[in-house]
Design a protein that fits this description.
434 Repressor (Amino-terminal Domain); two-stranded antiparallel ribbon; mainly alpha; 2 strands; 183 residues
Length: 183
């Protein structure tokens, strides 16, 4: 009987036997580490890679994310913009790309700058990194991460994830008991 290869998924950390399609059983991402291709240094090639559909999907994701963060329903947002609710639904599902005028009204209705609606995932990630790095403890840990091998990194991230879950459970319990936690 041939030996079966045991692998740990880099995304969800599930330890499993190699599947026939080499995809994780839990998150369905590739089990094999993919080689990152060298970046293309020409501006024209990078601009050509962004299609109208990609732009529409970025806007749709941003609109949905900001609307939910503001605890607004599609109907409430549509009322603020004075458009039918179905128009908001089409924007969020990527079936309609708003005009510049609609983007302006959308940004006003959401209470954000129009740039937040059209930013790409790279600028969104940069903003998240800046936010994380503003915490001195997390910034110190981030400088140490490159020196860890994949198993150590996975163990650290699992421990952080577990502590975050414990803290979340403690906060829910405290809220249920009517207590407030101080930092």
């Amino acid at each position: 009987m041939p030996a079966r290869e045991v692998l740990r998924c880099e995304y969800c950390a599930l330890v499993q036997f190699r599947t026939s399609n080499s995809l994780c059983r839990r998150c369905h991402k590739p089990l094999d580490a993919e080689e990152i291709p060298a970046p293309v240094h020409t501006v024209a090639a990078a601009e050509a890679a962004v299609t109208v559909t990609d732009t529409g999907m970025q806007v749709s994701h941003q609109v949905k994310e900001i609307r939910r963060a503001r605890h607004l329903s599609q109907r409430q947002l549509a009322s603020r913009m004075q458009v039918p609710r179905t128009y908001i639904s089409k924007i969020e599902n990527g079936k309609a790309i708003p005009t510049l005028g609609s983007l302006e009204r959308l940004a006003t209705a959401l209470g954000v700058d129009i740039c937040q609606l059209v930013r790409d995932s790279h600028s969104h990630r940069e903003e998240e990194v800046k936010q994380v790095m503003s915490d001195s403890f997390l910034a110190e840990i981030a400088t140490l991460l490159p020196s860890l091998d994949s198993l150590q990194r996975s163990m650290l991230l699992n421990e952080v994830r577990e502590r975050a879950r414990e803290r979340s459970r403690d906060q829910v319990r405290d809220i249920a008991l009517g207590r407030r936690r101080t930092a």
